[in-house]
Amino acid sequence: MAHTRQNQRSLTKAQKRRFVDAVLALKRQGRYDEFVRTHIDFYQGDGDGGLRVAHMTPSFFPWHRKFLLEFERALQRIDAGVSVPYWDWTADRSPTSSLWGEDFLGGNGHSSDRRVTTGPFARGGGHWTITEAVTDGDFLMREFGRPRQPVSLPSAAQLAGALGESRYDAEPWNSTASSGLRNKLEGWPVRRGDGTWFNHNLVHRWVGGHMLGAGSVNDPVFWLHHSFVDLCWSRWRAKHPKADPYLPLRRPGLGDSQHGRVLAAGDVMPPWNTPVRDMLDHSTLYRYA
Q: How far is 22 from 72, CA to CA, in rounded Å?
């Protein structure tokens, strides 16, 4: 039976506690850090060479859907009643939103070292030590809004612009694609050197700290963020029912700069060997409230 993912603002105190407890249990088992390492291992950019499956690539959505689903299943092995909520960052845009409460994800980091000291994922509580992608310390870091170079969370209009795209993705199938849902929602600047970020990427930059790099999974808000990105992809499919749900349909050929670097619809996604096509519809797996 398909389970339901809820908007985080609708969670009861008991639901928040169960989610947090399951995440902390995964951390104690060492399983959580395996998810962090997986994301680091598959965070490859345009200039890295080789196959890209997680970022700057058409498989951004199906790869993260599978990644999120594997995390959710790990939580449900601890507590079958838990699912990953979503954070609608076009609506809950304040550092004082319930998302950042002491009883849920905790708040912002200190201005001096970006260290999070509130909530269940603060290092001081003894339950959340950063072991992967360690930079300044083994504590969770955030820097809401990047005060030194201020940014705001994406607006509803910006997200609507991405969802209005009629194609799933477009050549050259990387971070410079100037049209298509994937890059408009993933949020890379179309021009090299352009400092403007959009939607998914802008949220990572707004939270700051560990959310800025490949080790972004160290911050549990990663999952709520990507749950909403997944929901947005689902809404796009409903809005454009006649569009190809995934592009490219065939691998770029010899001589193409993206040959061997992106997945086609019939390919499988590492590390799970899950076909891309298996992740194009979630209706039998879960639904959104």
A: 10
